[in-house]
Amino acid sequence: MGDNNCRSAKWREQTRMVHGGTMRSPFGETSEALYLTQGFVYKSSSAAEARFKGEDEGYIYSRYANPTVTMFEQRMCQLEGAEAALATTSGMAAVTSALLCQLNTGDHVVAARALFGSCRYVIEKLLPQFGITSTLVDGRDIDAWKRAIRPETKAMFLESPTNPTLELVDIAAVATLAREIDAILVVDNVFATPLWQKPLELGAHVVVYSATKHIDGQGRCLGGVVLSSEEWIEENLAEFYRHTGPGMSPFNAWVLLKGLETLPLRVRQQSQSAARIAELLANENSVTGVIYPGRQDHPQAELAKTQMAGGSTLIAFELAGGKEAAFAFQDALEIIKISNNLGDAKSLVTHPATTTHKNLDEDDRILLGISPGLVRLSVGLEDVEDLSEDILQALNN
Ligand SMILES: *Cc1c(COP(=O)(O)O)cnc(C)c1O
After folding, report:
1. What are the tens digits of pLDDT across the range 70-101?
2. pLDDT (tens digit, 9 = 90+) per residue, 317-344?
3. Residue 138: C-alpha distances to residues 46, 127, 143, 192, 317 (Å)
4. Is the distance from the beta carbon of residue 107 to the nearest atom of ligand 1 less than 6 Å?
5. Relative to the CA of 95, which ligand 1 atom is closest?
6. What is the mean pLDDT of residues 199-223?
């Protein structure tokens, strides 16, 4: 079945992203095959019986597993250094599955307050429907995590860097707290990308991605993935996944496999361009603040150095003129498009206060630093000179 070993580390990252997890059919195709099938047929009744008994390893039904999806999962394992993975329809299916599969009525979750909007819905609204309580803390404050722990705390959840203000959470410190009380730390690693941050190496138990973002990186399909130890996936997620149906479609897995081939190249280029643009923004008078994890003036620059291998493809910055200036800036851009998405080959700009974070109370927004003048920029693959010129003309419009 080809190189099907999640832990294979004999090649360097870029090589693994091109070849890792490939299972060639007897036709010997160069590119990964797309197994667009719901089910599988058996040679005989006893072969079907053996497969259902688990005596034979083959596939049964694409809600459980599919060869193209397996290839994507294996390649993700190789990128993340994880033993096992299950791919999902979207990043939110990954987050919801990773939490719901392991929690029971009466359990408690500690999570960082600065989260992707839908993640806050899962923690603040969905989990309580099942009698699972939570405490939201300032993720930067390790003592706040400590104080929030209760005897019934079973899981912790965070995102770092955060959306949209690119704050960092000390993953190793939170992982240590979680391990002391036998709780499971789940890290949403979307903003860091698998290239710049490896939460499992920092002590987290579970990593989730929205593959919709950098992993596709070309704006085509939604996807997600949950990665962890073989033991955790088997004991917590596998049965939940098979019977509730959040599994990724083979077509999306195929697109995302091709995305992984170029992920390191794209993320490196986009991060390099983002660093250049952050510098340009920092020198503009109409910009009152620039937040970029790769910069020395990031409030947590030291932590960025210890837990991240690179900067980010995203920049947050504040315009002196508030909402009016932010809207005028966005509307004047010619190359950069207005969109709430990120991690794309196309540079995208968002005004979080009126879009992605509009559902938060004003107090919450202020607490999170989402001011009316805050703009989030996802830097794409265009020529950085063109992007710089576009930004300057829009700022001076
Ligand atoms: C986009 C995103 C998600 C949700 O992913 P979908 O694929 O849109 O469901 C979750 N967390 C973060 C940090 C994201 O950026």
Report:
1. 999 999 999 999 999 999 999 999 999 999 99
2. 999 999 999 999 999 999 999 999 999 9
3. 57, 20, 9, 19, 21
4. no
5. 10
6. 98
**Could you tell me the distance, in angstroms and rounded to a whole number, from the CA of residue 21 to the centre of ligand 1?**
24
Q: Is the CB of 190 under 6 A from ligand 1?
A: yes
By alpha-carbon position, which residue is closest to atom 1 of ligand 1? 210
Map out the domains of the chain as residue ranges: 264-395
pLDDT at 313: 98
Residue whose CA lies nearest to ligand 1 atom number 8:
91
Cβ of 224 below 6 Å from ligand 1: yes
Q: Encode burial over 116-130: b for 16+ CB neighbours within 10 A, e otherwise.
A: bebbbebbeeebeee
Residue with CA closest to ligand 1 atom 4: 91
Any atom of ligand 1 within 6 Å of the Cβ of 159: yes
Closest CA to 347 of 302, 387, 375: 387
CATH architecture of 264-395: Alpha-Beta Complex (3.90)
> Model pTM greater than 0.90?
yes
Res. 6 pLDDT band, cuts 50 70 90: very low
Q: Pick from 190, 214, 344 the residue to mutate for probing ligand 1's pocket: most ligand atoms within 8 Å of its CB.
A: 190
